[in-house]
Amino acid sequence: MNKAKVIILAGFLGSGKTTLLKQLLMEERQKGTKPAVLMNEIGAVSIDSDAVQGDVPLSELLNGCVCCTLQDQLERQLIILCQQHQPETIYIEATGVAHPVDILDACLSPDLLNYIEETVIISIIDSPRWLNRDVMSIQSKMLLSEQVKHADFLIWNKTGELSAAEKNQLQEDQNRLNPNTSAVMTDFSRIDAEIIKNLTSSQKGNHEPAALGRQLKVKSFVYEFNGPITKESFENWLRQAPDSIYRMKGYMQFIGEKGTILMQYSYGLPQYEPEIMKKPLKVVIIGEGLDVELLRGQLEKLS
Ligand SMILES: Nc1nc2c(ncn2[C@@H]2O[C@H](COP(=O)(O)OP(=O)(O)OP(=O)(O)O)[C@@H](O)[C@H]2O)c(=O)[nH]1
């Protein structure tokens, strides 16, 4: 049996991992190659799995993080994917709070030696968030740095609006933290898929174990809207919502607008896309130290 290459897509909540995955899968489809996807989401409801078309084998690990509580399950799911589908490449989309070295650790398990050729870590960084990371908790800042430090390849994403000085800062930070890694600056994770295909791991066997106690106190909860609300009330709520909400994604309906929309929120910005299918109006909210009851109460009052 041919062994698979594993590509770990790491990067903080909302940095652009799914955006990249969609493009890579489109490229695979055009080339007629055989990918598989293992998707891990911190919330109890999967929103990103729609990014993977039906004919691509997909394994989902929900409601936890593969780098801590779900490590054994990651190993098992990788074996099942390899045995059932013999993929050439397996993309692991990690949760935004996963430490890449822990995922790498799971992939280097002796039980996977017969199935996996090599494992490459790509870190996708939300560049504006990176530049403003001082407002985040110490643990979140550490995690962001670790995601930069341990990457085999770095994608500085969301750089479209950055000044030359800010881009220079990113370059300096990379030189300091991970000088030997190649990197690109992108918008909407747009990158030549060949670059990704040709990446090799720089960490064969000599990666450092991740520091203990780095796990964040990230909480997620699912809020279900009873029906449509006004966009204005939602955006007013967003403006006063705590900065420690790092990510929201899910389905909503706005009064006066037709159909369901997919709402995505990361680093202060909501984005809306029309959704063709009818979906339950559930939104996953992820953050640190969230007062879930308070937030629920506020959302219930939106109309
Ligand atoms: N403005 C801007 N938005 C972007 C860019 N790249 C991605 N986005 C948007 O940012 C949001 C999050 O992107 P995703 O690709 O879902 O991020 P992710 O890393 O998969 O998110 P999680 O899986 O929740 O951690 C989406 O609304 C994207 O459309 C970019 O370069 N610029």
UniProtKB/TrEMBL annotation:
It comes from the Bacteria. Keywords: Chaperone, Hydrolase, Nucleotide-binding. The keyword Hydrolase applies. GO terms for molecular function: hydrolase activity; nucleotide binding. The keyword Nucleotide-binding applies. GO terms for cellular component: cytoplasm. Residues 218-303 form the CobW C-terminal domain. It catalyses: GTP + H2O = GDP + phosphate + H(+). Belongs to the SIMIBI class G3E GTPase family. ZNG1 subfamily. PANTHER family: COBW DOMAIN-CONTAINING PROTEIN (PTHR13748:SF62), COBW-RELATED (PTHR13748). This is CobW C-terminal domain-containing protein. The lineage of its organism: Bacteria, Bacillati, Bacillota, Bacilli, Bacillales.
